[in-house]
Amino acid sequence: MAGRKWIESELLVALKVYFELEFGQFHQYQPRIIEISKLLDRTPSSLAMKLCNFASLDPAMNGKGLKGASNADREIMSAFVADPEGIVAKVEDAFTKLVLSDQYASENTRDTPPSHQLDEGAMSFSGLPPKVTESVSLRKNRVGQSFFRTAVLSGYRHQCGVCGLNMPELLVASHIVPWKVDPHLRLRPDNGIALCSIHDKAFDLGFWTLDSQLHIKLSQSLKNAESDILMSYFGKFGGGALNLPYRFTPNGECVNWHRENVFLDGKP
């Protein structure tokens, strides 16, 4: 409906779509925008314009997008920058309540991990069903990880930041500072890198890191390895630049932390 004011729940749903899509997809013919705009009872062009407004407010976008953002748009984006975890929870609640029917929600919002994403924040299974508070906590963690994966992978255009592999099923939204280390960094997309499974595992184990210029730095164990296979997976990328995302460039402080605390050659 033209001219109808956006309410908070609609803005939260729009923010979810904003992080799902790439900047070049913010137009009225994009299928996801068409789908969600129908459920919101708005035109695709209206939703696309809202996404462009968010882009103009997103610090990761460096001023791209339209300049007609409302105060409500500013408040939503500022709240996300200040408290990603809190806003992501509100986004998912709004999406469930506003977009999904009660029947569909009951069938599809169970406590199952998002596909293709390691559940770093989950508790180990003890053979007993989780308590209610544990169940809520697990669901919040998994919802957050799903959001984190979507935001990070879309920023890298669904390609590995090292080798360029572009098969989403084999990609991981890898945390630079691990999930368990700092709750405030868990859902910040600039604390993530899109990596294929093998480069993600090697990154987590400290076999490679990034320098201050975001170039790939290999550990001595990889440099000294006399293996054609290791050379093809790692050696040829050593010293090269990370394939940077169009938004959410890796945070420098997070990269420094990884280099000093995880990288095998950086540990005391």
What does this structure look like?
With 268 residues, the chain is mainly alpha-helical. It has 11 helices and 4 strands; from the N terminus they run αααααααββαββααα. It folds into 2 domains: 8-105, no CATH class; 132-261, no CATH class. α1 packs across α3 and α1 crosses α4. It is elongated, with a radius of gyration of 20 Å. This is HNH nuclease domain-containing protein. Residues 160-211 form the HNH nuclease domain. InterPro entries: HNH_nuc. It comes from Thalassospira mesophila.
- Trace the largest sheet across and list its strands: 1-2
Number of helices: 11
Structure classification: mainly alpha
The count of domains is 2
Q: What kind of sheet is the major sheet?
A: 2 strands, antiparallel
- Computed Rg: 20 Å
How much of the sequence lies in strands comes to 5-15%
Mean pLDDT comes to 83
